[in-house]
Amino acid sequence: MDFYLGRSDWKTLQRGEEHSFLLVNGLGGYCSQTVIGSNARHDHNLLTAALVAPTKRFAMVRRIEEILHVGSNAYRLDSQAYVTSSDDAAGFRFLDSFFYDGLPSWEYMAEGVRVTKRLTLVYGTNSLAIQYQLYADEGVDAWIEVIPVYGFHSKNDRPLTYETISCRKKEDRLFMSTKEASLYLDTDGDIESMEEEQVQWYRFDQDGPDGRDGWGGGRKIHKIKSAHTTEEDIDKRVLNGSVMLNLIYGMDENWMNIQREREEKTQNDLSAVFSHLWNQEHERQKAVMEQSGRVSETARQLAVSAQAHLTRRDSTDGMSIMAGFPFFGDWGRDTMIAFYGCTLAIGQMEAAKSILQTFMRYCRRGIMPNLFPEGKDEVMYNTVDASLLFINALWEYLQHLTEKECDPSFEAEAIKTAESIISWYKKGTDYNIHMEGDGLLAAGNGLWQLTWMDVRFGDILPTPRHGKPVEINAYWYNAVCIVRELLKKQGEEEKAARLDVLSEKIKKSFLKKFTKPDGTLYDVLPENGEPDDASKQVRCNEIFALTMPFTMIEAKQAKAILAQVRRELYTPVGLRSLSLYDPQFHPHYGGTQFERDMAYHQGTVWAYPLGAYYRACIRFSDEPRQTAKEVLHQLDQLNAALAEGCLGQIAEIYDGECPAESRGCFAQAWSVAELLRAYEDAETAVVFGRNI
Question: Which residues neighbour 473 within 8 Å (Cβ) at sequence distance 6 or greater?
């Protein structure tokens, strides 16, 4: 999907910072800035590298100052807000256009001299390639000077001004290093060292809505100058009246050597190296689209956006899923919810298997990890749903396998893990996770929030859901049914029969205790108690009871649930986390940390449940093909969301009353994954004429 932006999109610095882009390297590293080339968040960097994939991330190249020289005049092309606002750089005044088709490109103009800029990350490595090209009329002397701003610090820290960046030449390229990180630079420009390191302090206005303090910085240690447009042909830097300046950054010496060999084969033309890397990334993204099998342009974009969250995890030598950029690492719950859309829906079967193996390795007392913390080794297990959703992910993976792809050894090990989860949950495990006498699952106590509505502010639980949450018991029933079927396949008839009895008990209790008089579902039941005020609140969690492979809900009841969701929770970009008619409904997400936490699950719109809603509409429709056509029409409204905030991505959350502006993570895995899955169901019904 192509995104074109022009001068009307950056009438001011603030307007220009409303849109951003995201490139990823499959290691947890990324490149992200605004479309005017500024850093509007502390997490914006040209090269955020994963020193240990995926969560030990360092801000290596923060941004680049860009000065165009035309004769004796100089024009600052980059834009940036500084702590001292009088220092703000307003290069957007010379920016004519921004284009994004999976990779960003800019076009500037000053005094008739045109400058284009392109950049790409290199997938699978901590590498960045940038190219500038100047076009000037004959006889016009023009050249560009760029001043990289480096971080060399942890993504969440500020510049370590007391630690000098060491610089030296190493095999005709620049080698920069500190105690923790090193970086190579290969360029066809002329590098001029500064007499002393300069620290820059920036203002990050987009951090304000997220309650962050909104400032940070970087360090300048050298300048890089291009050739002049009036010079003779010098190493192919001056071509047909245009000047080329290329910068290739990398952290791996072997990778840099490969690029040097490629450069030498093209008579030392670094532009050819850049073109190779640029085209390589375009082809990679195109292959993802094709492999998804999607027809709609929007769905094909969602496929690329979903694949962007796949990452390598070094600790297991396997794959995982980044929950959201730029804030989150790989979380268990998020991974399992996003699993289908980020792997199976785009044909990434090996990645799917690897992800399951990653989390199987960390399963403890029946509980899958909830969080691999940023830059730390400790794993957190405060989740009740990740394990149940793992079983669901396993089932969907096995259903997608061809006979050739089957791996009996892996399947046996995975089924053993799934069986262990059921056993632990039945007898009870950590965090008060246990099965009650009625067969339903209860979880949570004290300050531990174990469902996806897990926010906590000090000793305050804005959305306490201790007891028996509706979606957890829908997952529980589904998991028991899945393990029953897998055991049958293995010939374990006696074990399967016991789970068959348990599943019937769960279903009977669920329908009796969770069903309201109007046929909709209570959100959570107190442990060993009757429905209370919290039980009666209308939330989006009941929608998940309709989309599991094994569901307890019949069509009549499903339609009552869908009608309520449509009436009180539905928006074109997601479902409200609480009915807009509830006295506790929060129409806006923002303000202090306390204000944001109190609104987080109290009306704020979440994108990912919308996928389940659309899929349930098709599944329980009397005319699924016609409903699927209507769903495709509604899904097309996502085009506006894809063009807002981070281009091509769907955010974590939106305001509850008027969801016009993205909030939280600007790129959320389960948001794009679940909406892509809705597209798959709808296109399957409409385009291919197959039943869901």
Answer: 440, 441, 506, 510, 514
Distance CA 580, CA 588 (A): 11
pLDDT single digits (tens) 616-671: 999 999 999 999 999 999 999 999 999 999 999 999 999 999 998 899 999 999 99
If one counts the domains in the chain, the total is 1
Q: How far apart are CA 627 and CA 334, in angstroms?
A: 28
| Nearest one of 122, 439, 145, 411 to 280, comparing CA atoms | 122
Residue 18 maps to a domain = yes
**How much helix, strand and coil, in percent to the nearest 5, is found in the chain?**
40, 25, 35
- 225, β-bridge pairs: 145, 190
Name the residue range of residue 217's domain. Answer: 3-281
Q: Does the residue 105 lie in any domain?
A: yes
C-alpha span between 237 and 229 (Å, rounded): 9
Q: What is the pTM of this model?
A: 0.95
Residues 275-304: pLDDT tens digits? 999 999 999 999 999 999 999 999 999 999
Structure tokens at 626: 């016609």
- CATH classification of the domain holding 29: 2.70.98
φ and ψ of 315, to 5 deg = -65, -25
Nearby residues of 25 by Cβ (< 8 Å), 6 or more positions away: 50, 121, 122, 123, 124, 125, 126, 127
Per the CB < 8 A criterion, the answer to whether 228 and 159 are in contact is no
Q: What is the largest CA-CA distance in the chain?
A: 88
In a domain, 345, yes or no: no
Q: Where are the alpha helices (DSSP H) in 22-72?
A: none
Residue 136 lies in a domain: yes
Contact 397, 415 (CB under 8 A): no
